[in-house]
Amino acid sequence: MKLYALQPEVMQHDGHSVLHAFQPSDAQMCDLLVRESLQNSLDAAKPESSEVKVDFSIGNPTLDSLMKSMEHAATLLPPELFKGRHPCLSIRDSGTYGLRGMETKDITPGAVRDYVNLVYEVMHQDKPATAGGSHGLGKTLFTHIGIGLVFYYSQFFQEGQWMQRLAACLIFDNKQPANALRLSILPCGIGWWGRSSTSSTVKPLPIVDNPEIEQIIGLLGIKPYAKGESGTTVIVPGLELEKFSNAGGSPIRQEELLQNIEKSARKWYFLRINPVESDKKPRLAMTLNGLQLQRDMPPVMHLLRCMYANAIEALNVQSRDDIDFDAQTPTGSAVCKRKAVMRVVQGGAVRELIGWLITSRITDPALVYEFPQTNRSDPYEQLQLDPIMPARPILALVRRPGMVVRFHTDAASWGCNASLESGWVLGLFVVNSDESLIDFPGVTIEKICRDSERSDHFDWAAITSNILQSAQKRVKVLLSLECTGDRSLRQFEPNSLGELYGRLLLPGKRQKNKSETRKPRMGKNPVISIGEAEYQVDGIVLKFRMALPAGIKCALNISLSGEAGVIDKEAWVKASTNSFPYAIVSVKLKQISGTGKGRPSGLDEILNATKSNLRVINYSLDAKWNSGKPIFEVQKKALYLDGEIFLKTVMPSSGFQINVSRLN
Predict the structure, then answer these.
(1) How far is CA 104 from CA 117, 122, 140, 184, 661, in A?
(2) What is the DSSP secondary structure assignment for residue 14, as one 8-state letter?
(3) If you average pLDDT over residues 368-377, what whole number do you get?
(4) In the structure, what pLDDT confidence band is assigned to residue 514 with cuts at 50, 70 and 90?
C-alpha cells in the first residue's frame, strides 16, 4: 500500500490540531463511540432500507504480513501491532449508501462527498443537512481510541456499477518530541495509505481493485460485502482497551467492552432498536460479534417509547392541539400530557411549532420498577443516570432519526430543579424536525438543532439559537408545572456562552431586519456594530459598521464568549494547548463616510479624498491563523466605516465577540 504524506501548507491542519480539536464532554468513551458510529450509519440509510444493520466486532488478527505491505509502516507504527498484541475493532454497517462520490478532494460544490468527507476532511463547513455538531470532528474519535490508525472499507453503487474502496489513515501528534522520527516521513502527523498515483499531481487515492481489497481486509479479519450489498466498515486495528476503563480506572476486557457497547446502544437508540411504526424510519438491527442484540426494554423505556410515538403521530398530521392521553405499557397505563412548544414570529401574528413536550407524572410503582427481575430498579438506574435524591424530573431530548441526545436531570441546561417527594416525572421533548422556519425559508428546525450540537453530540447549546432558547424556557416552565404546579418556577437564567454568536445566527425578538447593521454612535472611543453573518464553505463573513473618532489608532480584536466571561487569545493560549478557534483573515471596506450630512460617497472617491486621513494597517492579512490584528489609524476627521470581516474557524459552534480597542 502506497503512503501519501500530508504536506505543510498555509491554513493546513496538522495532527496536533486535529487531535485536540475534538474536546468531548465528561461522557464515557464507550458512549461516544456508540453514538458517533450509529449516528453515521443511520444518517447514511438508503430510503428503501427497512433496517440498518450495524455490527461491532473485536478480534485479534495477526497483522505482521499486512504491516509489512504498508509503506514505511515499520517506522510509523508501534512494533507490538505487528505481533498481534492489540485487538482490532470493526464497525460494519449495511443498508446504507456506502462511501460514494469522487475519490479525491478536488470536486465541484454540491457533488456527493461521502468518501472524501469521512476519509480526508476534518471540520469541513459544507456539511450535509443530516450531519450534527461540528462536521468532521466526531470521526476523529476512531483515532483517539487506538494508536491513530484507521481503515475505511466500503462497497456502493455508482455510475451503474458496484464499486469497492479501501483506504487507511494515520494521525499522530506532531508536537510530541517522541514523534521526531515519524515526522521525517509525515511532517504534519497525517498520512493515508492507498494505491499509487500515475498523475503528475500526487494525491491520496483509495485502493479500488477488488481482489487486492479482499486480501487486505481478510488479513484484518473482515469479510467482504456480498454482491448487491452496500455499506461501510470502519476498522481500528490498534484498539487500546485502557481508554475504555471502568469506573475507578480498572482495566477492561474485550468481553466487557462489548457489553458496555450493548448498554450504550440500548440507552441512546432504544427508539431505533424498537421503532414506532409512524416514524417511518429504518429499524436499527445491531449485532455484537455477529450475535443479535436483544430488543427487550425496561418499563421506563416502554413508557418513553409510547410518548415518542404520540409526538411523531402529532407531527405527521401537523396537529397543534394540547391533549392528555393514556400510554399503554407492558406493566400498566400512564397518563401523559402533550404540550406544544411554540415560538411567536412576525410580530406576534404567527405561532410556530418548535416541537412537542410530553410529560407523565408516575405514582404507580409497576410502571417504573422492573418486574419480575429485580423489583428495585428505578428510572435513574434503567437509564444509567446518577441517582438524585429527592428525585428530579428526567427529560429526554430527541431528534431524528430517533437518537436521544441527552437525558437531563437538573437545571444546568434543559431540565429543572423541582424535586418530587414521591413518584417520578418523565419528560420527552421531540423537535418538529421537518418544519421550515417562517422567517428563514429552507432552514429547518432539525438543522438548527444539529448545528447547535457539540462535536460529541451530547446536548443542544440552546444559547447559540434564539429558537432553541425560546423552546428551552418553555420546556423548563412546563416541567416545573408538572412537578409542583407552581408557576413561580418560571425564572430562567441563560448561559452567556455564544450569546453574541446566537444573535448573529438568528434574529432576536426585537430585531426586525436581519440584514440591517445598526449605525454606532460616534464618541471619544472607537465603536463597532456587527450585523449579518453569512456562512460560507471556508469561513464566516460578518458585515460591520465602525465609528472612528479623529486622532486615534485602534485594532480589531476577536475573543471567545465563555461561561467565565470574555476570553481573549492571550488568555486562551496560556490556559489551553489548542489553537485559538477563530482568526480574522481579512477586512474589506465597502464604504467610508464622514460625520457630516449628505449621502455617503463611493469607496474609491472617499479613499482618494481621505488618503491622508485614514491609514489601514494589515488591511489584508496573510493566510495564517491568528496572524495579526487589522489596525486603523484616523488622522484628522472622524469617520464611519462599512465593510466585511472574513473569519476562519476550527470550532464553528463556539461563541465569539468582535470588538475594537484603542491603541493610543
Answers:
(1) 10, 14, 20, 25, 44
(2) -
(3) 65
(4) very low
